[in-house]
Amino acid sequence: MANPFQFRPPLHTRVLMRRTSAYRVFAIFYSFAILALLYHHLIHLLHSPNTLSFFILLADVLFSFLWASSQGFHMCPTDRRVFIEHLEHYVKESDYPGLDVLICTADPHKEPPMGVVNTALSMMAYDYPTEKLSVYVSDDGGSKLTLFAFMEAARFATHWLPFCRKNKVVERCPEAYFESNPSSWFPETDQIKLMYETMKIKVESVVEKGTIPHDHITNEQEKQAVSRWTDEFTQANHPAVVQVLLEGSKDRDITGHTMPNLVYVSREKRPGSPHHFKAGALNVLIRVSATMTNAPVVLTLDSDMHSNDPQTPLRALCYLLDPDMDPNLGFVQFPQAFHGINKNDIYAGECIHVYQIHPIGMDGLAGPFHVGTGCFFRREVFSGVPSRTPGLSSDHLVSKSIGNKEVLASAHHVAAWNYENQTNWGTKIGYRYGSLCEDYFTGYRLHCEGWKSIFCNPKRPAFLGRAPINLNVCLSQSKRWGVGLLEVGFFKHSPIVFGLMEIGPLMGLCYANYAFRPLWSIPITIYAFLPQLALLKGVSIFPKVSEPRFFLYIFLFVGAYTQDCLDFLLSGATIQRWWSTQRVWMMRGVSSFAFSLVEYLLKCIGISQFGFNVTSKVVDKEQSKRYKQGIFEFGVSSPLFLPLTTAAIMNLVSFLWGMVLIFKKKNLEGMLLQMLLAGFVIVNCWPIYEAMVLRTDRGRMPTRTTIISIFLAWALYIIVSVSPKI
Ligand SMILES: O=c1ccn([C@@H]2O[C@H](COP(=O)(O)OP(=O)(O)O[C@H]3O[C@H](CO)[C@@H](O)[C@H](O)[C@H]3O)[C@@H](O)[C@H]2O)c(=O)[nH]1
Ligand SMILES: [Mn+2]
């Protein structure tokens, strides 16, 4: 008998990208070129061992390793499409699974509550049956100001949700909607805008003052909630607070329609007991939501990522509800995308490699890594290895109302500081502890357990967040990532050993490529200083133009750069943005990644401790103006800038000295590659010279930093000039 379902139109399709064969052929040629270079280095080192050759060999070996590990991303790049319009052939809207949205925030001063509120409102307004939707907010800042913002938001939501529904608004984050000057102005728009502005002013003034005036508390329930902030209540020492702000079974919007659940959670914190940062916060939310609604689908989000498309959950359902899907599908990852990026994306905030090129590459293997936000999980993923009987049915729904006393008691119980003691939370279940990149680490562990993932990359970004608009913040953020990645690289189940066996060689390579990213700092730093120091001493270290090896170098450099640039252009980015990305890559190499390596080593020998330094989302007006003009922001005298300025000075001086040498000795042939290298670095460092010498605004390079780096460059020169081997 014919299967009655076999004529249903597909929910999604998948194809291997056309560029795959070109990638593979190029990889073969490139590998031979690398082997030839390494062979030559080795022979040379054996014949005449010296420090310089050793460092160059070390740099090239690391470059080669990192290049080889990046090939995992290039063997099966995959393109997918989903067809939301076919979903009705598979499931009725009333049978959609429940969806629990988990949002994290950590600090009302770095993450303004109005931003978090906007994120939550945009999710509450999803095109999804409201009775199946719950939004949970974790506040690691333990701040009554954030709670107050959400009490206001809950009231505003009863107007905002029907407004979006009635007018079919696509932009459901209120701030973004009003900012975009909507062309279709509806009769109620002015009124709702006024309501939003009033709420915003009220919340912002409360946050600024740091206290909630009595007259702002309108009912007994709110009074009780706020009264938990006693004098002993501090950010690092307080009991659990679970506050139901909207209850789907009771609350109605102004048109009488049901509302989604909205729950505020601040887990218990006690001094001296580890709380595992965001991973710990998410695990509490996973448990609290399990006691209250236990939806089979869980969406995790950062506080600054608002929804940009109300149909996003339906896209995820196209995979999660497909009866022919691999039963081990664990999560559907959407890329991080950003708004407010300047024209040339000077800080490479879009991270095209991390959020586009690499996930597309992994999607043809076991699936993309988890990037912390914008990810739809099957709840089961958090309870251990995949079972053979997956279920997304609604029998999971919990029967009691979320405001029920018993339910609230168990919600508080699972948010207690010591709840996880003697359990597998963080080791075998939930988000995994042990890395500051809890997202990457958890995704890795899930893949090792046999779960699969899928990359969903719609044309209209599903979520939009904010990327740092300040170089120091940007470098600190990548320093934190660097430490987190090294923690995975040198973890007992490191991707390079355990991963390769567990998830297959290509996936293992992909994970290893990230785990060892901070190692880029070694070859980049060597190439930023050594050939230049040699140039200052008049020593030629690369082959002459007449030698065939000269072309080997040119091929290796141009080949890698061209492939990367093409990858970028194919993902829709501009060439200027690619240029910025390669520049920031070098900056990270000498600065943040080098710092991560040092910080990680110090931690290993027990000298230092590190924490999750939350990325600031506060926007300074003046800085934001400079950012829009594409001007780099230095301003503070941060140690992270020192390697940048030192390298900038070293390259400039050696280039000028090289010119002198060429004129005097006419030895252009032997020095050409060193001169080209220094010239390339100088072009990249242009904004640094400007900031050191030409600029007068507040974002210029602090004079202190410039002076220290002149001294450092000079000291390096002295060290090298007294060592006879170079
Ligand atoms: O103790 C903490 C620290 C952070 N967070 C939250 O974690 C999220 C991410 O923090 P943020 O500082 O914005 O991280 P990013 O610099 O954007 O970092 C990226 O890298 C992180 C891992 O290092 C991932 O968790 C993020 O999803 C990813 O966007 C935010 O919502 C924070 O509120 C907590 O809840 N508790
Ligand atoms: Mn963030």
UniProtKB/TrEMBL annotation:
UniProt subcellular location: Golgi apparatus membrane
Pfam family, one: Cellulose_synt
Annotated membrane topology: Multi-pass membrane protein
Keyword Transcription: no
Membrane-crossing residue ranges in chain numbering: 21-39, 51-68, 511-530, 550-570, 640-663, 670-689, 701-720
Keyword line: Cell wall biogenesis/degradation, Glycosyltransferase, Golgi apparatus, Membrane, Transferase, Transmembrane, Transmembrane helix
Chief subcellular location: Golgi
Matches recorded under Gene3D superfamilies: Spore Coat Polysaccharide Biosynthesis Protein SpsA, Chain A
Gene Ontology BP, a term: cellulose biosynthetic process
Binding site for UDP-alpha-D-glucose: K110, E111, D140
Function, as annotated: Thought to be a Golgi-localized beta-glycan synthase that polymerize the backbones of noncellulosic polysaccharides (hemicelluloses) of plant cell wall.
Protein name: Cellulose synthase-like protein G3
Organism of provenance: Vitis rotundifolia
